C-alpha cells in the first residue's frame, strides 16, 4: 500500500487545487488493514491507463495492488440497485479508518463502472474529487460538468451532488476535510 500512498502524495504535490484544499497529513501511520475484495475490484484491475502523465502513475499503482486494498461500499443494494452495487467501490487510503490512519484529512480512491447513475447524495465534510482516468458528468443543483482526467470538482458542506458515467468508467482520488470528516455520505 505504500506504493499507492507515494503515488497519491506525488500527484497531490503536483496539483494546485488539491494543495489549496488541504495540507498533506503529517500524522499517517500504517494501520495494516487486511485486504477486502468486492466485485468491482476485478474491474479496477482491468482499468485502462486513460489518465494523464500526472495521474497515470497512481492508476498504475492502484492496478498493481488491487488485491492488497480494503474495498468497501457505502450503500446497500436496496439503496442503489444491483448494477451500481456490483460495479462501484472505494478504498480509504488514509483517514480514520484508512490503510494509513489520520485524523487530519481523509483520502479515498473511488471507482464507478461505465453507464451508472450515482443518484443525489450529500455529506457534512467538504470534498474535492480529482479524476484519475475515464470520465463522468458531475452534477450539483447549480451546474453540470464533464470532468476529464486531472480535473477537480469540489463539493461544499451538505451540498447535494450526483454523478453519471456514460461510455467510460471513472477512477478518482477524493479528499475530505473539516467537520463531518469522520462521517459517510447518505443518499438524499
Ligand atoms: Zn461526495
Amino acid at each position: 500500500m505504500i506504493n499507492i500512498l507515494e503515488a497519491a502524495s506525488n500527484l497531490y504535490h503536483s496539483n494546485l487545487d488539491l494543495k489549496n484544499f488541504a495540507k498533506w497529513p503529517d500524522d499517517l501511520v500504517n494501520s495494516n488493514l487486511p485486504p477486502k475484495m468486492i466485485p468491482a475490484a476485478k474491474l479496477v484491475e482491468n482499468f485502462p491507463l486513460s489518465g494523464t502523465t500526472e495521474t497515470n502513475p497512481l492508476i498504475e499503482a492502484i492496478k498493481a495492488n488491487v488485491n492488497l486494498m480494503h474495498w468497501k461500499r457505502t450503500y446497500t443494494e436496496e439503496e442503489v440497485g444491483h448494477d451500481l452495487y456490483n460495479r462501484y467501490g472505494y478504498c480509504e487510503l488514509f483517514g480514520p479508518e484508512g490503510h494509513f490512519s489520520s485524523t487530519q484529512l481523509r483520502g479515498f480512491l473511488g471507482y464507478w463502472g461505465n453507464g451508472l447513475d450515482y443518484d443525489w447524495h450529500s455529506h457534512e465534510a467538504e470534498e474535492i474529487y480529482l479524476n484519475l482516468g475515464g470520465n463522468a458528468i458531475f452534477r450539483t443543483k447549480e451546474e453540470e460538468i464533464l470532468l476529464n482526467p486531472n480535473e477537480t470538482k469540489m463539493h461544499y458542506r451538505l451540498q447535494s451532488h450526483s454523478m453519471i458515467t456514460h461510455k467510460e468508467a471513472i477512477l478518482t482520488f477524493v479528499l475530505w476535510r473539516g467537520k463531518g470528516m469522520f462521517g459517510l455520505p447518505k443518499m438524499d
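The helical segments are 2-14, 16-21, 39-45, 56-64, 77-80, 82-86. The chain has a mean pLDDT of 97.
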